[in-house]
Amino acid sequence: MTLNPFKPFSSYLKPYRKQIALGLTLLVGSQLASTAIPIFLQWAVDVAQTGYEASQAGNTIAVETALNEVIYYAVYIVLLAILSMLLQMGMRWALNSMARYVEYDMRAAYFDHLLRLPPSFYNHMPTGDLMARATNDIQAIRMFLAFGVRMIVTAALAFPLSLVVMATIDWKLAIYAILPMPLLALVMNRVAAKINVGFRDIQEQFSTISARIQENLAGIRVVKAFVRREQEIGVFKHLNEDYLQKNKVLINVQSLFYPFMFLISGASLLIVLWIGGGEIIRDEMTLGEFVAFNAYLTRLVFPMITLGWMIDRYQRGVASMKRINAVLETKPEITNIPEAKKDVDIKGHIEFRHLHFDYDKTPILNDINLVIPAGSTLAVVGRVGAGKTTLANLIPRMIEPAKGDLLIDGIPIRTIDLSTLRAAIGFVPQDTFLFSDTIFENVAMGIENATPTEVSTASEISQLSKDLSDFPDGFDTMMGERGVTLSGGQKQRAALARAVIRNPKILILDDAMASVDTHTEDEILDGLRKLMADRTTIIIAHRISTVKDADHIIVLDEGRIVEQGTHDTLIHLNGIYTEMYQQQQMRDELGEM
């Protein structure tokens, strides 16, 4: 362990310095009280020995006096034991509650940081791994802070206090008693490194297992549909076997370390019994001194025995803290600049100026120049991979352009506070996500304290309300994970209602009606027209029927705007838009046959 074993956790311990100080003060008091007990025990034994000798000589007065003194010392021992117990109870309350608060703060900070990280972070970080860090790793840190802190301080107090009193009783015997201990320090140094590496490997494997379980549960329908049950069981069995083997490695280290510590402590006891026993026989030490010396040696040995557990917990805590910090030290790519403005009344005039976007050095958008007047409707169409979703994600700053400018109402979006910017935008992403909650709560999460009337109105616009009769409890119907109990069209309409209820100045619909039939699509668009009349709307779609009434349509191809204009203008260009329109007409005609 380092000179300051609490340094890795210091930032989380600072708010609880008073509580820690209280706990440590109570711990010091408890140790002082318990350190005094063997002294009274020594006096009691010596007095009892004197009383025994007096009884052999027939001196009844001396026997009665000795008996009274023994009772007197016994009362002091009991009182000191009660005081030590009460102080320890207070100490445990202070330090254990501190550890729970730190766990709370750490988990809250971890979750808050996860929500600040960009979507690109989650492209390479498995969900199961992040969940394992939020549970297993933070629990390991809490275990060290709850028990390791008091063990370290107890050892730091008990060892010198006991050693000093032992030296006052018999300094030569005290030196003999601690002779085996330097060997323990050498072994501890070697073992600590192995525990750190071993536990880190265990936690990483646990994260891998968690990620695999999460993926299988999230994709259970795919697993069943492709009859992958046996294969997935085999993969999981292999991962579980690796986890078992990594635990065995750590168990092997611990199985050698703990017996070795008992061996060292046993060697110290053997030395004291051998040499101290000889001193009693030669009348160089009283029986009370020998009993007290052994009591202090036991107090000296106890920290040695718990040291192994302490090192184990510390190394687990440090390994877990490193894994937590690996996430916490990941800087969000998109943050507010110091001069970001909060008091901006966004109208919805959007302008792209020579904007470029790259993903892993691969160009996605090239030299985009586009003006979207406030209150107008822009439609974006194009082939798969043309950059349509990327264009939409730039507006709420889900991603940042490589170069070029994006302005809203003539203000560069980097100078608008993120909360202000995103509060003015209603976004229905391509990948619809619903939470494991009621339909009402999923729609209402778009705003704070939504009323039933607002939820109902938004649901009517998105045409979700017409399906309410299919739900057993209406808006109070609980949905499965990711809205699994709803159809694809119902999920998209719920997501659309969630965006509509915000009454945003800018509404972005990224293929938001791909899963609904054309009849429902027409009904949704009819409902949206009144809403879209006074706000900027960006519609990304593959179906021409969705975009044909837009004020302006752009066609993206390989990251560039290759065509733009109204529906009628683009039809007469005989380009990509015309080709898409004709292909869809042909499919519709074939579908009616």
What is the name of the CATH topology of the largest domain? ABC transporter transmembrane region fold
Find the CATH superfamily of the largest domain.
ABC transporter type 1, transmembrane domain
Structural class: alpha/beta
Radius of gyration: 37 Å
Widest sheet: strand order?
A: 6-7-8-3-9-10
Share in helix: 55-70%
Bulk shape? elongated
Count of extended strands: 10
Please, how many domains? 3
Residue share in β-strands? 5-15%
Q: Output the number of helix runs.
A: 17
The description of the largest β-sheet is: 6 strands, mixed
Low-pLDDT runs: none
Oligomer: single chain
Report mean pLDDT, rounded to a whole number: 83
CATH class of the largest domain reads Mainly Alpha
Distance linking N and C termini: 78 Å
The secondary-structure element order is HHHHHHHHEEEHEEHEHHHEHEHEEHH
CATH architecture classification name of the largest domain? Up-down Bundle
Explain what this protein looks like in three dimensions.
With 593 residues, the chain is α/β, with parallel strands linked by helices. The chain has three domains: 102-328, ABC transporter type 1, transmembrane domain (ABC transporter transmembrane region fold, Up-down Bundle); 345-424 and 506-518 and 534-593, Rossmann fold (3-Layer(aba) Sandwich), CATH 3.40.50; 433-503, P-loop containing nucleotide triphosphate hydrolases (Rossmann fold, 3-Layer(aba) Sandwich). The protein has 17 helices and ten strands. The chain has helices at residues 10-13, 17-57, 60-116, 127-177, 181-218, 220-225, 229-281, 287-328, 388-394, 418-423, 439-444, 452-461, 488-500, 518-532, 544-547, 567-571, 576-592; strands spanning 350-359, 362-372, 377-382, 403-408, 411-412, 425-428, 506-510, 536-540, 552-557, 560-565. The chain has a six-stranded mixed beta sheet, with helices on both faces. α2 (17-57) runs antiparallel to α8 (287-328). It is elongated, with a radius of gyration of 37 Å. The mean pLDDT is 83.
